Amino acid sequence: MDLKSWRTERKLSQSACAGLLSLAGGARSFQRIETGENGCDADLTARVLDMTDGAVTLQAMHETRLRWLKANRPEKFDAPVHRYPEAAE
Fold first, then answer.
1. How do residues 7-18 score in pLDDT, each as one tens digit?
2. What highest taxon heads this organism's lineage (predicted)?
């Protein structure tokens, strides 16, 4: 479940969630996390998992961030991926 779905199911405002997470930036900071515009550091991620009793997973948060990046910063995915060469026999 993503963060927005969790919040709306509980009929909580973004401002209320920002308060629960002690976000200095308030509702706007929460909105950026909820949409994936901003990623979360480990400490904030731990607080989100705690606040939601694990209903919002790390995977869901990661997927939300990837969707936002792909839609708004597609150039981040243009760099070539270099594979580690197979060991010679």
1. 999 999 999 999
2. Bacteria
